[in-house]
Design brief:
By secondary structure, this protein is mostly beta strands. The chain folds into 2 domains: about 5-50, no CATH class; about 55-135, OB fold (Dihydrolipoamide Acetyltransferase, E2P) (Beta Barrel). It has 1 helix and 8 strands. A 5-stranded mixed beta barrel has the order 4-5-6-8-7. Strands 2-1-3 form a 3-stranded antiparallel β-sheet, covered by helices on one side. β5 (about 75-85) and β6 form a beta hairpin. It starts with 6 loop residues before the first helix and ends with a strand.
Length: about 140
């Protein structure tokens, strides 16, 4: 069994501010980031789709102690966002100083952009794109 949308393709698109996902042709569920099987019905009958990249914050955490290799990035905010298409995706909230983030951000509309972060001690050289969220004004 092969991935319809590989992690490398997903990462390459994210670097161009395009959020790619999968739509299940059997039940209509969207999946992002890509997986091999539908998270709802386990089907592998998918089509690759470009997602809106818009959603709302459902929860967050502020990181004050970074993993090895990212010590100079703290503090930073990680947000869990429910995309308009349905799936939840995690990424950095970069539009607000982490020291000022409060519960008021929950429910706020955001838009995703790909942002390349340096790799950590265990990552591939050159860094990978990760979702970065900005408030949708």
């Amino acid at each position: 069994m092969e991935y319809k949308l590989t992690w490398q393709e997903y990462n390459k698109a994210l670097k161009k501010d395009k959020l790619m996902g999968l739509k299940c042709n059997d039940c209509g569920t969207y999946t992002c980031p890509p997986t091999m099987a539908c998270c709802s019905c386990a089907s592998t009958n998918h089509e690759i789709v470009e997602m809106s990249g818009k959603g709302k914050i459902v929860t967050f955490t502020v990181v004050n102690i970074a993993p090895e290799g990212r010590e100079n990035e703290v503090p930073y905010t990680i947000a869990m966002v429910e995309l308009d298409e349905g799936p939840w995706i995690m990424g950095n909230l970069v539009d607000m100083d982490p020291r000022n983030v409060t519960m008021d951000v929950i429910g706020k509309k955001v838009k995703i952009h790909g942002r390349v972060f340096p790799g950590d001690h265990y990552s591939e050289a050159g860094g990978m794109a990760r979702p970065a969220f900005y408030f949708d004004k």
